[in-house]
Specification:
Length: 172
């Protein structure tokens, strides 16, 4: 009988410990997930800041070597190709590029993350040599979806990104 009582007491303690561990596991998992979401958002923010600086220098590290870029219905190839043949030359024509109304939603699933960004961007164009005045800024409402993967070094990198934009609707 003593052994049965001791066994019951031990089982109760183990049960409570197990229940406590299970209760703490989701909290730890949420904290880890939140930290990963923050890390993913940081990668997206670094890319956004580079575009705002009109300088793609060093941004290749934010993308996997075999990344894919899709923009407004076009297949742009790898980020390296996109940056060299599309983005960098375009940024040279701009006087300013600013994001506003930015929101990012991130879902992390193991070594992959899925991100959706919404924003408004305003592009200020450089005044051309024959222009009497600066051209009107270009304002667009944009959305981007990206898939990121955590590499062997523990860094998040963009594998695939797809963006599109349109002229903002006028509120009536």
């Amino acid at each position: 009988m003593k052994n049965l009582a001791a066994f019951a007491a031990l089982a109760t303690v183990l049960g409570l410990t197990s229940t406590t561990a299970r209760a703490q596991a989701p909290a730890a998992s949420l904290a880890a997930s939140s930290a990963e979401e923050t890390a993913v958002k940081n990668v997206l923010r670094q890319y956004q800041q580079a575009v705002e600086k009109l300088d793609t220098t060093g941004t290749q590290r934010l993308f996997t070597a075999n990344s894919q870029v899709f923009e407004s219905g076009g297949v742009e190839g790898t980020y390296r190709h996109y940056a060299a043949h599309h983005l960098a030359p375009e940024l040279k024509e701009f006087a300013a590029f600013n994001f506003s109304d930015y929101k990012a939603a991130v879902q992390v699933d193991g070594p992959y993350a899925f991100a959706t960004e919404t924003y408004t961007y305003t592009i200020g164009l450089k005044k051309g040599p024959k222009d009497k005045e600066a051209k009107a800024p270009i304002v667009r409402r944009g959305v981007a979806t990206s898939v990121l993967r955590k590499n062997a070094a523990g860094q998040w990198q963009i594998m695939s990104t797809h963006s599109s934009a349109r002229t903002p609707r006028v509120k009536k």
